[in-house]
Amino acid sequence: MNSTDGCLASSTAGLDPAVALFHSLSDATRLAIVQRLAHGEARVADLVTELGMAQSTVSAHVACLRDCALVVGRPQGRQVFYSLARPELMDLLASAETLLAATGNAVALCPNYGTDAPAEPVQGSKEIAR
What we know:
Largest sheet: 2 strands, antiparallel
Helix content: 40-55%
Protein name: ArsR family transcriptional regulator
InterPro entries: ArsR-like_HTH, HTH_ArsR_DNA-bd_dom, Metal_resp_trans_reg, WH-like_DNA-bd_sf, WH_DNA-bd_sf
CATH class of the largest domain: Mainly Alpha
Shape: globular
Keywords: DNA-binding, Transcription, Transcription regulation
Organism: Amycolatopsis arida
Order of helices and strands: HHHHEEH
Structural class: mainly alpha
GO molecular function: DNA binding; DNA-binding transcription factor activity
CATH superfamily of the largest domain: Winged helix-like DNA-binding domain superfamily/Winged helix DNA-binding domain
Strand order of the largest sheet: 1-2
Number of domains: 2
Number of strands: 2
Number of helices: 5
Distance between the termini: 22 Å
């Protein structure tokens, strides 16, 4: 969000890190990856099987989460096992679920970001399933 879109009237410079954090979590596939990694580490191949998506798509989303320092990789031989970088991420998601429950999921009706709003593609990825 920025001051030109009508959502915030004041300067957003201090909000830039929060905007980046929430943007990194703003995709259903990335959230599914985070939720899966909350249960333990996984390889991209594991995520591909569990999510039913193309390897290139899953890799692009994992790279996004890794670039944002939300996910870390542990190389083992020729494989990389990914896990959450910070357990506080699950606290954030739990708080979001509490907020959604308290508002009756009203955010789903938002004309800009609700469930019927158009999806934004991930940089470097041509195929993003929603």
